[in-house]
Amino acid sequence: MGTKSLCLLLASVLVAYYVYTPIPENIEERWKLMLINAGFRTVAHVVMTYFISAMEPYDLLSRWTANKLNAVVISVEYRLAPMYHFPVQFEDVYTIVKFFLQNSVLAQYGVDPNRICISGDSAGGNLAAAVAQQVNDLEVKVKLKIQALLYPALQTLDLDLPSYKDNENKPILPKSLMVRFWSEYFTTDVSLQEAMASNSHVPAESSHLFRFVNWSNLLPEKFKKDHVYASPIYGSSRLGKKYPGFLDPRAAPLLVDDTKLLGLPVTYVLTCQHDVLRDDGIMYVSRLREVGIEVIHDHIEDAIHGALMFITSPTDLALGHRVANKYIEWLNINL
Ligand SMILES: *[C@@H]1O[C@H](CO)[C@@H](O)[C@H](O)[C@H]1NC(C)=O
Fold first, then answer.
1. How far is the CA of 249 from the centre of ligand 1 (A)?
2. Number of CB atoms found within 10 A of residue 298's CB
3. Pick the catalytic residue: 5, 12, 53, 122?
4. Is 122 a residue of the active site?
5. What distance in angstroms lies between residue 209's CA and the mean position of ligand 1's atoms?
6. Mutation test of ligand 1: which of 155, 206, 216 has the most ligand atoms closer than 8 Å to its C-beta?
7. Which residues form the active site (predicted)?
8. Best CATH choice for the domain 3-334 from the list 3.30.200.40, 3.40.50.1820, 2.60.120.260, 3.40.640.10
9. Which of 111, 144, 121 is nearest to 58 (CA)?
């Protein structure tokens, strides 16, 4: 009897240690989220591209969008890091979007050229924002009506924003994982990852870019809290020369100057309070509004990164359904 109990205790201690992640106070279904998070961490340890496990919810979301909006939904299966590096992902999406922005192609699918939206969450939000900027420059007759950016990743320069600090160890996307995703977008060379982890990866030659991600100017007071703005720490020019992608606005859409933001479509931005990427989205809202772009900003106080992934059983959360409904409802009215 003693042996059995001891084994059980050991097992549960191990499980408890492994499962336990501090979950913010205002989050509902805390235990379910903790278990899902542990599952994610396990998968993340086993395979590098753990967002592959997210294909099922995205298929469902695409179907919901198609049905609710009576829309043609094109879900682009771009090639993934770390197998492929930037700009492959950008080019994959850009090529498809450019192809569909032709009147003849749209006609073939029965699509109204005045009602086109580009949308994405997380890394997909990054690609949506980057592609929207680049097609904006093209001499195409068909324009996007809406870009919907759901907790997007928009900048590589400052990985110590207040949201990175506040949410360093939050579920689903801790800072260490986001740093790994960013660095693996450009290279499997760990020296970039190490430099990014200490936020000293940007060479002094690129110091002029920091004004585009200056949270001291771009964040509302509420999100600055008691954080103190510090000047950037510059790294060696070697990394910037070897992996120029991390200084490229096609990877980090916040790095364009204001003139590149002019003419962008109506923008829906969803941000989550407990998310390292929160301030990327909020700073883009500020920058777009400053140049007169119409922005609808939904900030969800009790949400974590990746909320939209949690809509399929057994890993569904009330939060996932709430956020998905909010976004699809907004699109249904506005697209
Ligand atoms: C960021 O903004 C603050 C406040 O306006 C300013 O003091 C600081 O020099 C800026 N930093 C950069 C790198 O632009």
1. 20
2. 16
3. 122
4. yes
5. 11
6. 216
7. 122
8. 3.40.50.1820
9. 121
Give, using CA atoms, the residue closest to atom 6 of ligand 1.
Answer: 216
Residue ranges around ligand 1 (CB below 6 Å) = 210-211, 214, 216-217, 229
Q: Can you tell me the distance from the alpha carbon of 115 to that of 248, in angstroms, rounded to the nearest whole number?
A: 29
The domain segmentation of the chain, as residue ranges, is 3-334
For the sheet with 146-150, list strands across it. Answer: 117-121, 146-150, 266-274, 295-304
**pLDDT in the model for residue 284:** 98
pLDDT at residue 17, rounded to an integer: 47
Q: According to the model, what pLDDT value does residue 45 have?
A: 52
204 alpha carbon to ligand 1 midpoint, in Å? 15
SS3 252: coil
Task: Return the pLDDT at 54.
Answer: 57
How high is the pLDDT of residue 194?
97
Which amino acid does the sequence have at 193? Answer: Q
Q: Whose CA is nearest to atom 12 of ligand 1?
A: 211
Nearest to 115 by CA among 70, 146, 83: 146
The per-residue pLDDT for 203 is: 97
Q: Which residues of the chain are modeled with pLDDT < 50?
A: 1-3, 5-9, 11-18, 46-53
